[in-house]
Amino acid sequence: xxxxxxxxxxxxxxxxxxxxxxxxxLLDWLGVEGQRRLAESHAMVVGCGAxxxxxxxxxxxxxxxxxTLVDRDIVETSNLHRQVLFTAQDAADRVPKAEAAARRxxxxxxxxxxxxxxxxxxxxxxEELARGVHVIADGLDNMESRMxxxxxxxxxxxxxxxxxxxxxxxxxxxxxxxYACLRCAFPEMPAPxxxxxxxxxxxxxxxxxxxxxxxxxxxxxLAAGREDLLLHGLxxxxxxxxxxxxxxxxxDPACTCCAQKKFEFLNAAxxxxxxxxxxxxxxxxxxxxSGQSVNLSGIAExxxxxxxxxxxxxxxxxxxxxxxNAEGQPYExxxxxxxRVIVGRCTDLEAAQSVADRFVGG
Length: 362
What we know:
Layout lengths: L1 H10 L4 H5 L1 H4 L5 H10 L1 E5 L3 H13 L3 E5 L17 H5 L4 H12 L4 E5 L8 H4 L5 E4 L4 H14 L3 E7 L2 E7 L6 H4 L12 H4 L3 H19 L10 E5 L4 E5 L25 E4 L4 E4 L11 H8 L3 E6 L2 E10 L5 E7 L4 E4 L4 H11 L3
Parallel strand pairs: 1-2, 1-4, 2-3, 4-5
Antiparallel strand pairs: 5-6, 6-7, 7-8, 9-10, 10-14, 11-12, 12-13, 13-14
Helix pairs in contact: 1-4, 5-7, 5-12
């Protein structure tokens, strides 16, 4: 143990982190050298909700030195049964998930540097978000965004750990240079409505915990320099039947992404609207893409004539009294400092864009 204490006394906060990690340093495959590598690693988790939250917690507790946390959404009460980083107060305050996750990391791993990015990750900003990152973890809720990260990972040779969970099933797959990529496993995008979602099929918290924990293990192996210990293939858990299997995924010599080097998702035109999984809501990007700073005070003043809106730091939230959905319910609006808008109580993409353009503008 003295070697571990000596190492971390020189690299982290005076030995406090070494005491926290004593039990994992004892592992033959990790040891002091592996712990040092974790302390020097930088992981990005895209999607800080269910699976992403489990991954974030384990990476922080294990001593990963730097975390970039990316999520466009805010905490809601319906998240709390499966999204372990958040509290009822976070939901009541409608805190952005990335910010709530970062606060949680700071409370339990004082030596970890953490950066919260409250924004959508898409083809327009994925490269910038991942700059300097050693490994990417998938906490997303849709295949298109995952394929953007898969393209980026293959193009820039950044290890990428995919994970997903719905109903009683979870899965994970590590994408590293020389092995199959996510598009080898899923060469065609599924048609709308084919894949189950948490909205249609539900999801149980322990399923999320199992899939997220396995994905976190794969990330930690990569961050510790132990790629030799990775499980290759598509790991799958079906807790309805109590079966855990690994499906071999050979590298496709005709794969559009890893073989032909055509990064169609990363190079795609930016779509302004997208459904927010589990929310009954639609995200609308500003006309010139996300990242454009807006005058929230001015927008708040305009919106005050159309409903009650609260200004919380880098976001506004409230509901419109003179714009309702097909069921007669007032639309909710959350406006972020980068110009993004989430239109709540709405599932129609065109209607959401119309509401955002009408009340927030470009």
